[in-house]
Amino acid sequence: MSIIVKFFAAPDDASAARVLPTGPRRAFDSLSFGNFDAEEAVIEWECLLSGGSFDELVEAGEPRVIAGQTDDGCVVFAVSPRLSATLAEAQRADLEDAAVAWSGRHAEGHEVMDAEIASVILGDLAALAISARGRGQGVYCWVA
């Protein structure tokens, strides 16, 4: 589980990788959250919103790590272009349905993720994806 989760928009992988030591701070538009496994979450969201299998996405190398270590310390990873596009195009009802399903999956694992908070996370991330798309940027995540 990540203590700090910051999604942000950046023009390319190299720019995104530069935030590894400190996070995106003010260099990029960003959203701050905490206390969930962001790498697992983006795979779950892609499954919920776009279909597909969790295992297939993991086998395909999602999410793609840009910088850092995956076992400890900070890491920067790219949100897949498919998930970014799906978020940018999603209707509010689709995001809310995905949020309810995601929070339900957390309840099964004895973790607490309120559906309302999950809805805010997905709604804010969708807005970031729309903004990033408009500037020709990708969506990334920094976790610590």
How does this model look, in words?
The protein is an alpha+beta fold and 144 residues long. The protein has a single domain, classed as Hypothetical protein yfbM fold. The protein contains 6 helices and 5 strands, in the order E-H-E-H-H-E-E-H-H-H-E. The protein has helices spanning 13-17, 38-50, 54-59, 81-89, 92-108, 115-134, and strands spanning 5-10, 30-33, 64-68, 75-78, 138-143. A hairpin with a 6-residue loop joins strand 3 and strand 4 (75-78). Helix 4 packs across helix 6 (115-134) and helix 5 packs across helix 6 (115-134). The radius of gyration is 14 Å and the shape is globular.
Features:
alpha+beta, DUF1877 family protein, globular
Helices and strands in order:
Layout: E1 5-10, H1 13-17, E2 30-33, H2 38-50, H3 54-59, E3 64-68, E4 75-78, H4 81-89, H5 92-108, H6 115-134, E5 138-143
Antiparallel strand pairs: 1-2, 1-5, 3-4, 4-5
Summarize the structure.
The chain has one domain (5-143): Hypothetical protein yfbM fold (3-Layer(aba) Sandwich).
Label the overall shape: globular
Instruction: Give the averaged pLDDT, no decimals.
Output: 91
Unreliable sequence segments:
none
CATH top level assignment: Alpha Beta
Q: How many H/I helical runs?
A: 6
Tell me about the largest β-sheet.
5 strands, antiparallel
Number of beta-strand segments: 5
Order of helices and strands: EHEHHEEHHHE
Q: How do the strands of the widest beta sheet line up side by side? A: 2-1-5-4-3
